[in-house]
């Protein structure tokens, strides 16, 4: 009988260890939108985003504490293909601090800084006049889709018969990519829902309020904000594969954006 109790105790403790190992931190971002979730202490996330025209962004984010995470990312345009490489000018940062915990009636809240934009980085832009003649070059120093910059985000989660569902919203201000003359603050929203333990559906909207002036109309991929959707698949433990469908509100009158973007993102989460 004593041996039986010992066996049950050992099995129970083993199950607890396994359960702890398979508890993953809440998603710290949707497709591009930051949520209020952060990585837990002692965990890290490696991410690779394959963009259009052979672009690639890789990033590493570490949970320093249960409330604070720090990350770096770097990439290039035309990394895959036979065109000349367009390296980004510098590594970009991803900082987040979880201010307020979520309760039954109130969302969680985080503040952070993301300097990583998406697409090609443009240092100088040459506009044209009404007759198609080039004008004086302008220094813009921005990505096709601007980074969120400094932001505050809020998230509220619920349990559903299928799994977890979350609503996310926030406001941001980009202090670095404002040489195009548009310094407006921005708004973003998002939704994630588990279909089963392996599959999640993601939808987000980046209002792009800081991309609606003349220069941004010519540089940005969209003039009416970015509506993105994705399917995230937990392929194996800690490995997530995500298929993104971006810029679903493309402007058919603009020849440069007569389609939506299809991108691939791979996320791997591990613990020290």
Which key features would you list for this structure?
mainly beta; Porin; 12-stranded antiparallel β-barrel; 2 helices
Describe this structure in words.
By secondary structure, this protein is mainly β. It has one domain (26-271): Beta Barrel (Porin). 10% of the residues lie in helices and 47% in strands. It contains two helices and 15 strands. The chain has helices at 2-21, 214-219; strands at residues 43-50, 56-63, 68-77, 86-87, 92-100, 108-114, 118-125, 138-145, 149-159, 164-173, 186-194, 199-206, 226-236, 239-246, 261-271. A twelve-stranded antiparallel beta barrel has the order 1-2-3-5-6-9-10-11-12-13-14-15. A hairpin with a 4-residue loop joins β11 (186-194) and β12 (199-206). The radius of gyration is 21 Å and the shape is globular. The protein starts with a helix and ends with a strand.
Count of helical stretches: 2
CATH class value: Mainly Beta
What is the arithmetic mean of pLDDT? 84
Report the oligomer.
Answer: single chain
């Amino acid at each position: 009988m004593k041996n039986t109790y010992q066996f049950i105790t050992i099995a129970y403790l083993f199950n607890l260890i396994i359960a702890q190992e398979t508890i993953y931190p809440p998603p710290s971002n949707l497709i591009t939108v930051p949520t209020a979730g952060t990585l837990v202490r002692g965990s890290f996330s490696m991410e690779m985003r394959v963009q259009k025209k052979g672009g690639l962004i890789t990033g590493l984010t570490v949970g320093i504490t249960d409330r604070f995470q720090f990350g770096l990312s770097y990439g290039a345009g035309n990394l895959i293909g036979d065109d000349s490489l367009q390296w980004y000018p510098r590594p970009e940062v991803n900082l987040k601090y979880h201010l307020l915990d979520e309760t039954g009636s109130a969302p969680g809240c985080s503040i952070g800084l993301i300097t990583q934009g998406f697409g090609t980085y443009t240092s100088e832009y040459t506009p044209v006049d009404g007759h198609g003649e080039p004008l004086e070059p302008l220094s813009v120093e921005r990505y096709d889709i601007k980074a969120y910059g400094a932001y505050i985000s809020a998230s509220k989660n619920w349990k559903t018969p299928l799994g977890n569902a979350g609503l996310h919203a926030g406001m941001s201000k980009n202090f670095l990519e404002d040489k195009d003359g548009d310094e407006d603050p921005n708004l973003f929203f998002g939704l994630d829902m588990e279909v089963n333990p392996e599959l999640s559906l993601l939808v987000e909207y980046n209002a792009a309020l800081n991309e609606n002036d003349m220069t941004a109309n010519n540089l940005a991929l969209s003039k009416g904000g970015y509506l993105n959707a994705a399917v995230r698949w937990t392929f194996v433990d800690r490995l997530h594969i995500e298929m993104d469908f971006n810029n679903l509100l493309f402007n058919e009158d603009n020849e440069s954006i007569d389609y939506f973007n299809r991108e691939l993102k791979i996320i791997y989460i591990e613990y020290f």
